[in-house]
Amino acid sequence: MSENAAHRLLLVHAHPDDESIGQGATMAKYVAEGRGVTLVTCTAGEMGEILVPELEHLAADKEDGLGEHRRGELDAAMRELGVTDHRFLGGFGTYRDSGMKWHDDGHAIAADEIHDNAFWHADLTQAADHLIAVIREVRPQVMVTYDEFGGYGHPDHIQAHRVAMYAAQLAAAPSYRRDLGEAWDIAKIYWGAMSESRIREGLRRLRDEGDTTTFEGMDPDGQLPPFFRPDEDITAEVDAGAYLEQKMAALKAHATQITADGPFFALANNEGQLVWGRELYRLVKGVPGEVGDHGWETDLFAGVPAG
Ligand SMILES: CC(=O)N[C@H]1[C@@H](O[C@@H]2[C@H](O)[C@H](O)[C@@H](O)[C@H](O)[C@H]2O)O[C@H](CO)[C@@H](O)[C@@H]1O
Ligand SMILES: [Zn+2]
């Protein structure tokens, strides 16, 4: 078995599409390099909007079939990235998308009405136990999830962060729930990140090209939403520009959520390479390995023995 095959990455995300948005290029790159990639998605995205008019009947307040449909979108997106191991936390339908609404400050907050089995109301230990079983089975050296704010505040993202971080801690405890498998300590944990400087460069490019509608309201020289982090917070950049096509195809597979002329595609291809092909991370557990010119790691497995 090649050394790469002994490296295993676990990603924990809230809804179908988050994985492709945040780390789609990294996932495709690592699969192509022969590394193991496992995705755990905590809900099926039942409460999402529907950008495809002929599918509006699937909406939660109509046929409530969007979760099943997005399961298919996720399958298609994973085929584009080459990922063969993707699971729903506790099994499909265990936890439901909690929905969200926008706060005046521009970040997401919990919806006014939330279903009984919404992920936001999940019992943290029970949800973590489902993930511990996966951690102890897959034995990943690296895990990726959201920061404590869930990126932009979505309650399911915040809950996915909490479950992932708690599960990683408990999975490493030999005396905790031996029935869930032999203890496994994940060597490195990263939170996905987006660069403030990168998006400012991209917004300036769009403005210079006369595009004033994409990323409407975001001034390249003004205040940006909190999920764009200052560069000093970032510790790793995976340059997966060579896999940008696979990432864009995976994004397109999530057709009810992402429009082909939306912000992810608006940036010119070379800008896309800069903004979307190079995926950024914050190391929050473990020892950083070799770094590149920018002082950031270029490989999430840097310094991690295979095995
Ligand atoms: C990327 C992501 O986390 N998407 C979530 C999010 O979707 C947003 C939501 O529908 C909002 O109402 C829209 O204005 C916004 O454009 C969407 O991105 O929340 C959904 C409901 O919880 C979730 O299904 C979707 O995956
Ligand atoms: Zn999401």
Automatic annotation (TrEMBL):
<feature type="binding site">
    <location>
        <position position="157"/>
    </location>
    <ligand>
        <name>Zn(2+)</name>
    </ligand>
</feature>
<comment type="similarity">
    <text>Belongs to the MshB deacetylase family.</text>
</comment>
<keyword id="KW-0479">Metal-binding</keyword>
<feature type="binding site">
    <location>
        <position position="18"/>
    </location>
    <ligand>
        <name>Zn(2+)</name>
    </ligand>
</feature>
<keyword id="KW-0378">Hydrolase</keyword>
<keyword id="KW-0862">Zinc</keyword>
<dbReference type="Pfam" id="PF02585">
    <property type="entry name" value="PIG-L"/>
</dbReference>
<dbReference type="GO" id="GO:0008270">
    <property type="term" value="F:zinc ion binding"/>
</dbReference>
<dbReference type="InterPro" id="IPR024078">
    <property type="entry name" value="LmbE-like_dom_sf"/>
</dbReference>
<feature type="binding site">
    <location>
        <position position="15"/>
    </location>
    <ligand>
        <name>Zn(2+)</name>
    </ligand>
</feature>
<dbReference type="GO" id="GO:0035595">
    <property type="term" value="F:N-acetylglucosaminylinositol deacetylase activity"/>
</dbReference>
<dbReference type="GO" id="GO:0010125">
    <property type="term" value="P:mycothiol biosynthetic process"/>
</dbReference>
<protein>
    <recommendedName>
        <fullName>1D-myo-inositol 2-acetamido-2-deoxy-alpha-D-glucopyranoside deacetylase</fullName>
        <ecNumber>3.5.1.103</ecNumber>
    </recommendedName>
</protein>
<comment type="function">
    <text>Catalyzes the deacetylation of 1D-myo-inositol 2-acetamido-2-deoxy-alpha-D-glucopyranoside (GlcNAc-Ins) in the mycothiol biosynthesis pathway.</text>
</comment>
<dbReference type="InterPro" id="IPR017810">
    <property type="entry name" value="Mycothiol_biosynthesis_MshB"/>
</dbReference>
<dbReference type="InterPro" id="IPR003737">
    <property type="entry name" value="GlcNAc_PI_deacetylase-related"/>
</dbReference>
